Amino acid sequence: MITISKEDYLKEIYNLSCESRAKVSTSTLAEKLSVSNAAISEMAKKLHNSGLVTYEKYKGVKLTGKGKRQALKIIRRHRLWESFLMDALGLSWSEVHAEAEKLEHQTSDFLIDRIDEYLNHPKCDPHGHPIPQRDGKIPAVPQSLNLTAAEKGNCYTIVKVVDENKELMDYLTSISIGLNTEIKLIERLSFDNSILVVIGNSNYRLSEQVASKVFVTLNRNSNE
Amino acid sequence: MITISKEDYLKEIYNLSCESRAKVSTSTLAEKLSVSNAAISEMAKKLHNSGLVTYEKYKGVKLTGKGKRQALKIIRRHRLWESFLMDALGLSWSEVHAEAEKLEHQTSDFLIDRIDEYLNHPKCDPHGHPIPQRDGKIPAVPQSLNLTAAEKGNCYTIVKVVDENKELMDYLTSISIGLNTEIKLIERLSFDNSILVVIGNSNYRLSEQVASKVFVTLNRNSNE
DNA sequence: ATACAAAGTTAAGTATACTTAAATATTTTG
DNA sequence: CAAAATATTTAAGTATACTTAACTTTGTAT
Ligand SMILES: [Mn+2]
Ligand SMILES: [Mn+2]
Ligand SMILES: [Mn+2]
Ligand SMILES: [Mn+2]
Asked: What is the pTM of this model?
């Protein structure tokens, strides 16, 4: 049987291997999951024995096909719950992650399909992450650009935020940043890489750390 | 911290003490929770030490005020989830229990209040059970009568089903029995206590076992 | 190449929630 | 009221998922 812990490990291995592409080191995993290295070594053996990851001592772990499919299922549940809580119950994009983090482990295939239908098979969750489909395929999302790489004078549309920290989300909301918000880059300060942007009728200065979490697409009709 | 297991124990102790009023024996609990007597003895000590039940060796357990409040909270979550899954996602009354059984343990106070608001503070769940309120109070429900005690010639309205077995619920649905369905008693066979009833335009024979799970209220204008 | 620091694993121990089997209360009954 | 039957607890052991501390491997730096 796959436990809540194992689901969380698989999900994290998946997320880390998306970033780095290769095998995931046990200490990176330990860091992300807030457990000791020892706990990871132990679990790595178990997951290996269940055929969910490949694991060689001192060489890190990597999802197998089976493990990847399982991870995508959990991520699908997570993102569908987030979308559903926003849509059906009106939670905000800063509130849904914490709830989904728990509900994702207690959701039958039957229920998640009902939620998917209710939402009409959405492609993205409230933070702009693609929702894996029933068959494990990930919907194509438009190529996006990190805000730190945006250019002075251009207008962009916000399409993704890659950190679901509640404080960050609430801060973004407080300066009118949401999914699909239009944003124009006024200037970049090379001293700290902070940027000055226009959102609606107001100017805001965003730190490099904040900008690095936000992804955008360039608007065609970019010069006024 | 209160674990999923502990929540299930408290819920079951509450349900059993509603039936029997007094202390709950460890073996009855073991039976209901499908664990060994030994597991119950152990858990009884732990719950006693956390002040959730009183427990004396060989004398069974009883919820304290704190334990009862906790139990009602879990039951509230369960019944609100059942109602919500039916209302928002269109699950049937035979499907909601199994899902709620899992979700009830992973639901924040914040989320359950949102669900309660969405449903407009319902008094009863899809099986006719009262939903404990935020403050722990249980809404008054009309006095009801077991179908086994119904009298020949009378018309009744179904207000509660006290077993959430999926097969039973699906069977009831198949003979058009739902909450608020009107039903008329034609005759009772004293041989097996089975009853013949009219529902809509059809006659059905219900076994004593089935009737014993169904509760009704007498309709005022009962004779045609 | 060696030596050392960092990364990772193993060992030993803890807590939770179970099990079966043995021991001990309690209750029933002749 | 004592013996037998039944109910319940304790003892010992298992699995999961953690911990810290000791040990081993790996990679790097001179
Ligand atoms: Mn999330
Ligand atoms: Mn999780
Ligand atoms: Mn139920
Ligand atoms: Mn439960």
From this structure: 0.95
Closest CA to A214 of A160, A166, A169: A160
Interacting residues of A220 by C-beta distance below 8 A, sequence separation 6+: none
d(C-alpha A214, C-alpha A144), whole Å: 10
Q: Is B120 helix (H, G, I), strand (E, B) or coil?
A: coil
CA atoms of A214 and B37, how far apart (whole Å):
55
CA–chain centroid gap for A81, Å, is 14
Average pLDDT over residues B77-99: 98
Residue B198: phi and psi, rounded to 5, are -105, 130
Alpha-carbon distance A23 to A11, whole Å? 14
Region of B50 (left: φ > 0; alpha: ψ -120 to 50; beta: rest) is alpha
Protein-contacted bases of chain D (C-beta within 7 A): 7-12, 16-21, 25-26
CB A185 within 8 A of CB A206: no
Report d(CA A29, CA A190) in Å as an integer: 34
Q: Phi and psi of B27, rounded to 5°? A: -75, -35
Does residue B42 reach within 7 angstroms of strand D, measured from its CB?
Answer: yes
- Flag residues of chain A having pLDDT under 70: 221-224
Q: Alpha-carbon distance A50 to B44, whole Å?
A: 35
Amino acid A221: pLDDT = 63
Q: How far is B171 from chain A (nearest CA, A)?
A: 20
